[in-house]
Design goal:
The protein is of the alpha/beta class and about 450 residues long. Helices cover about 35% and strands about 20% of the residues. The chain has 13 helices and 21 strands. Strands 2-1-3-4-5-6 form a 6-stranded parallel beta sheet, sandwiched between helices. Strands 17-18-19-21-20 form a 5-stranded mixed barrel. Strands 7-10-13 form a 3-stranded parallel beta sheet, sandwiched between helices. The longest helix is centred in the C-terminal third of the chain and has 24 residues.
Length: about 450
């Protein structure tokens, strides 16, 4: 660790984050690295000494947004401001980004953040660099993250991905899968709990394939769930093929593990799934859902679905709709297929391309199906009582946003409650997707969760 500069005011860094929670977590690590090197966090880009844009490459739209944003941010640069691009798009484009955006002097992929302070110093001396080597040992285990959330903590337990879904850029941008040492994860969770955080979310691209030093994901759930003060334990995203009986038994047996699983399905058609190289059939996905539901009463499921994957016929799409209806997802992230340079899907015959109008119509139909199903179920839940954790103040004045263990959003009157509080509420209304709730017990009378 380098000493804090004793001379003039501390240098400031502004980080803007796009993409998934892995990126949010990486931004917390970057901020940790830079804080240790004497930097201070700036709340906005204006006048910051360093501006970092932590990017996503998952769909073309994600990248065009960042390119636009880089242009806008240029206006906030003062003389001497260093502009850096990090994350998945940085990894994917490397030096090409330096050519494309002359005001960018640093391009750093996900395994290169340790070198940030030195690279920034180099940039100050006029060097422009692209750092895109993978480091299979890198977990930033000694870096103290500076967290943006005071109620829950995102804990990376695995980096990279060894699956090769044919549409996906992540194996290219994040490199091979590696799991972080179990003792190290538990140490971080313990330190987090000591700061008063009661909910942790374990992160990995296929998080339940976690395996290291003879430990699997079941061991990890048991170890993290046993940490004093941890009342809610979640994880994202699991892969259906990695839900071993051991993992499901640990989920059922560890009280902190919440009754919600985000289980990306991608498609309800075995033929589409095969072209996607998801490595499961429709039946195997249904079987996974059934095993989870049998073990965990009241389990809520959410998912990711792609429409318009090359070769997706009307019949295949109909199977996705029927799967969504049969399973009854509480919510879904729905995407139109986006061709990513270098992925196997881009080498499929062009006649398999699904026209954009068709993909758009399928997306609309899918969203209507998901919303319709969850609306009916949510209406049926009015009057239920749930423990909620208050996450933050709501946009609606005088209200707080809280969450049930099964991941429903509940707006409650502020009434002296604060982020971090647990209370029991009765669900009194629903928009179809989110709820309003009324407290039914005082904080003092609360049963302890977990
Ligand atoms: N590792 C996670 C997913 C990470 S990406 C998993 O396997 O579940 C998040 C979601 O983006 C994916 O689940 C998928 O639905 C979507 N996605 C990924 N690549 C895409 C592409 N090329 N076009 C459209 N959606 C894509
Ligand atoms: Fe991408 Fe598939 Fe890996 Fe998820 S499992 S990150 S979709 S390659
Ligand atoms: Fe996440 Fe986007 Fe990278 S979804 S892993 S930030 S490509």
């Amino acid at each position: 660790m380098r000493p804090t500069p004793m001379t003039d005011a501390r240098r400031t860094v502004y980080i803007e984050t796009y993409g998934c929670q892995m990126n949010v977590s990486d931004s917390e690590l970057m901020l940790g690295t830079l804080t240790a090197a004497g930097y201070e966090q700036a709340e906005g880009p204006e006048g910051a000494d360093v501006i970092l844009v932590n990017t996503c490459a998952i769909r073309e739209h994600a990248e065009t947004r960042v390119i636009g944003r880089l242009g806008e941010l240029k206006r906030h640069m003062k003389a001497g401001t260093i502009m850096g691009v990090t994350g998945c798009m940085a990894q994917r484009l490397g030096p090409r980004l330096l050519d494309q955006a002359r005001h960018v002097s640093l391009v750093i992929g996900p395994d290169g953040y340790r070198a940030l302070p030195d690279l920034i110093d180099g940039a100050r001396n006029g060097q422009r660099s692209a750092v895109t080597d993978f480091d299979l040992e890198e977990h930033y285990q000694d870096v103290l993250p500076i967290r943006g959330d005071r109620v829950k903590a995102w804990i990376p337990v695995q980096r990279g991905c060894d699956y090769r879904c044919t549409y996906c850029i992540v194996p290219t941008t994040r490199g091979p899968e590696r799991s972080r040492d179990l003792g190290d994860v538990v140490r971080e969770v313990r330190a987090t709990a000591e700061q008063g955080i009661t909910e942790v979310i374990l992160l990995g691209q296929t998080v339940n394939s976690y395996r290291t030093g003879g430990h699997d994901f079941a061991d990890l759930l048991r170890a993290v769930g046993a940490v004093d003060g941890i009342k809610r334990l979640r994880f994202t995203s699991p892969h259906p093929n990695d839900f071993s009986d051991r993992v499901i038994a640990a989920m059922a047996g560890v009280p902190a593990v919440c009754e919600h699983v985000h289980l990306p399905m991608q498609s309800g058609s075995s033929r589409t799934l095969k072209r996607m190289l998801r490595r499961y059939t429709r039946e195997e996905y249904f079987d996974c859902v059934a095993r989870l539901r049998a073990a965990i009463p009241g389990l809520a499921l959410t998912t990711d679905v792609i429409v318009g994957f090359p070769g997706e016929t009307d019949d295949e799409f109909a199977e996705t709709i029927s799967a969504v209806e049969a399973i009854g997802f509480e919510d879904a992230f729905t995407f139109k297929f986006s061709a990513r340079e270098g992925t196997p899907a881009t080498r499929m015959p062009t006649e398999l391309t699904v026209p954009d109008e068709v993909a758009s119509a399928r997306l609309d139909q899918l969203i209507t199906t998901v919303r319709g199903g969850s609306r009916v179920r949510n209406l049926g839940r009015l009057g239920e009582r749930h423990e909620v954790l208050v996450e933050r103040t709501a946009k609606r004045g005088g209200h707080l946003m809280a969450r049930t263990r099964d991941f429903k959003t509940v707006l409650i009157p502020a009434d002296g409650y604060a982020p971090g509080d647990y209370l029991t509420v009765e669900l009194t209304g629903t928009t179809g997707s989110t709820f309003t709730g009324a407290p039914v017990s005082s904080r003092a009378a609360l049963p302890m969760a977990g």
